[in-house]
Design goal:
A hairpin with a 2-residue loop joins β4 and β5. The chain has 13 helices and 16 strands. The protein has a three-stranded antiparallel beta sheet with strand order 1-3-2. It has a three-stranded antiparallel beta sheet with strand order 4-5-6. A two-stranded parallel sheet has the order 7-16. α12 packs across α13. It has 395 residues and is α+β, with helices and mostly antiparallel strands.
Length: 395
Amino acid sequence: GGMATNALVNIWHTSDRTKQVIAGFVQEAVDRGGRFVHRMADFPKRPETHEFDSTGMRVVFDQMLKDAGVRILCNLTAVESVVSDGRVSAVLVDTKTGRKAVRGKIFIDATGDGDVAANAGVPFDFGRTSDGGVQGMTMMFRLMGLDAAKVRANPQESERVFTLMKKLRDEGKFPQFLEMAARSYLSSPRDPMVSYNMCPVAGNPLNEEELTRLSAQGREQVYRYVDLWRKEMPGFENAEVDQMGFGLGVRESRRIRGLKTLDAQMVVKAVKRPDAIGHGFWMIDIHDPKGTGHTTWVDQKADTMPPAGDSYHIPLGMCLNATLPNLAVVGRCASSTHEAHASVRLQSHCMVMGQGVGTCAALALSAGVDMAQLDIRRLQAQLRKDGVYLENIPA
């Protein structure tokens, strides 16, 4: 898990607010996670259901891969997709011992940015239609050394410091921050397992130089928050940054054009699809592409989220494309509009795509057909057998 283990994005969403509707591989990760995973006390009344220790889950995920017999190659970069006769035949990767070719019959692009697919010539979209801006990114962090009792004993000070942060920000003397989160952290100290989600930056995550600059900016902003809190907020006098993400939490970049495209109405109307590989339920949660830190999650509007107790289907078609039949994408680079992407980009939803497409690829190889030609009912039956929640599929 890139964001889960490298960017401190350590929360999973599995509930439609009445029941758990994402299981399968996600539930296996929860079960295998043991002491590293904590189910929230109000489960399943909110979409957010589990928090986890990012460091411990690195070991858990490594063990899951080992147990499954996966050959793993890390520390390399995919630099070119080799296409011949309308199919991907190899992906060239740069390694410490030179450039090598990874060959295969089916390829699944889980890079998040759709690097393999874009390089292979599959069309994609980038950003919102108005100005091409992608969702803002976040530098996640954790604190230690807080005196929680002292913080809770000074609610008036929490509000004073929050007001001061806004004033300084509006005067251009303090960085942007997610207001709702900052106010919460100042009044209710977080468990050390929980990451602080309040430090926004904005820009193009496909530009390496810009991403480098934004990463440095995010790290600096974190310490500006902490330095002010240490000076002004009772209980934060000895607060220190315990950990930051190794990289920024990137929410959006390329969205590969698929056989089907998830859109906003499919999300909020909880639309069901014949080629479903799982369920999604998160709201249209857009983090401001301008970097203010505002997110539509704060607005909590009824027309941005499926009704409680209902969910939309994640279709296989959003992971397949019309250009290359032996190439699929999974994760936030799958086919969606800017608005629908803001729902389906969640880790748990991406894991649904990963299990669905991975199973499709295995069955397609066994049957000697392309992924789009596989009997969808056979795929859905296997997913159910493997623990995936998959209901209300139209005929």
